[in-house]
Amino acid sequence: MNTLRTAMLLAAMTALFMGVGYLIGGSGGMVIALLIAAGTNLFSYWNADKMVLSMNRAIEVDEKNAPEYYAIVQALAKQAGLPMPKTYLIDNPQPNAFATGRNPENAAVAASTGLLERLSHEEVAAVMAHELAHVQHRDTLTMTIVATLAGAISMLGNFAFFLGGSRENNNPFGFVGVLVAMLVAPFAAMIVQMAVSRTREYEADRRGAEICGHPLWLASALNKIARGAEQIPNEDAERNPAMAHLFIINPLHGERMDNLFSTHPSTENRIAALQEMARAMGSTAPANRREASPPPVEPEELPAGPWGKRPEPAPPPQPKPNPWGRNPTGPRNAGRRGPWS
Questions:
Q1: What is the pTM of this model?
Q2: DSSP category for residue 138
Q3: What is the DSSP letter of 65?
């Protein structure tokens, strides 16, 4: 079914591309747009994941330079029956995460340093379970291709005036067609992008909660990430808004509406759905919408969770090397008795 959805999406986006080409240059413009769309689709399939990671300046990590973070992803992947994805860190204070890749065998998950610094061990696990759910459902291919094609269509719309201004072209609609292409193409691409993202987020929430076994962990994480995204700008995402729908929470400022024009469902609605799921599972953890996080417990009392036993702390005083010269898996404050301490 997901393969069929991907094929239908590519066909729709290609048709939109061809329509813009026709408005700009008539039949000749449509053929050129078809060739560009075919090349873009092919490029997206093989390289869009690398592009997304590069645009967010993500750096690959492993068990040596991010041991706890890597161990969580590794154990959750095993729990979900997935191959171990490549694991990345983004040096960005806004808490957020995304997944990318054309299939589970070539997938990657990425979390920001802000996410690992601000969320508990359980909440990080829930977020990564959500991203692995996208991988399992093969949403990563669809969403990455959508991001690439949406950006390409928007660019074509922006250049419509220059591409269609010549009187020698075969544009049957003249300047009106060019104007329609400039205004409608980016808008139509945005609508497709938003529609795809919103329906898949709810399903990834549900499956992610199943993988980690605790819906309220994800509810708490969504609450914290949403508040962090409101307060902390993500400059890379602001420069590349076509990538916004890849993240677990919209990283752009001013996106709060749960309607057709929002890239993500309302966070409150997502939390409510997870709380309902927790009740159905018989969870006894707190279900307050505003602060769904379970109360702090001592490290030895932490539940094993799907990743197994909590990793033993590295022997001091030999810190692991990492890309930024500091601990990328969260603060270790001696006065704080939490899952990262």
A1: 0.70
A2: T
A3: T
What b/e sequence results for 314-332 when a residue is b if at least 16 CB atoms lie within 10 Å of its CB, and e otherwise? Answer: eeeeeeeebeeeebbbbee
Phi, psi for residue 74 in degrees, rounded to 5: -60, -45
Please give the structure tokens belonging to residue 325. Answer: 């010269």
Fill in the DSSP letter of residue 247.
B
Q: Which one from 122, 123, 131, 201 is the annotated catalytic residue?
A: 131
Contact 213, 281 (CB under 8 A): no
Measured CA to CA, the distance from residue 287 to residue 218 in angstroms comes to 11
Cβ atoms of 293 and 120 closer than 8 Å? yes
Q: What is the pLDDT along the chain (341 residues), one digit of tens a residue?
A: 555 665 676 677 667 777 776 776 667 666 776 777 677 767 767 877 888 899 899 999 999 999 999 999 999 999 999 999 999 999 999 999 999 988 899 999 999 999 999 999 999 999 999 999 999 988 877 776 666 666 666 666 666 556 555 544 555 555 565 666 666 666 666 666 666 666 788 889 999 999 999 999 999 999 999 999 999 999 988 888 777 878 999 998 755 444 445 668 889 999 999 999 999 988 444 434 334 444 333 333 333 434 344 444 445 444 444 444 444 544 444 444 333 43
Q: Report CA 123 to chain centroid distance, whole Å.
A: 16
Q: Tell me the DSSP string of 185-253.
A: HHHHHHHHHHHHHHHHHHHHHHHHHHHHS-HHHHHHHHHHHHHHHHHS--HHHHH-GGGGGGBSS--ST
Residue 102, Cβ density class (10 Å: 0-12 exposed, 13-18 middle, ≥19 buried): buried
Give the β-pairing of 86-90 and 97-100: unpaired
Residue 213: other Cβ atoms inside 10 A: 17
- Tokens 């029956």, residue? 81
| Selection from 246, 253, 283, 289 nearest residue 270 by Cα | 289
Cα angle, residue 291 at apex, residues 247 and 297 outer, rounded to 5°? 105
- Under DSSP, is residue 97 helix (H, G, I), strand (E, B) or coil? strand
Per-residue DSSP letter, 306: T
Token code pair at residue 211: 């993988």
- Type of residue at 220: S
Does 131 participate in catalysis according to the annotation? yes
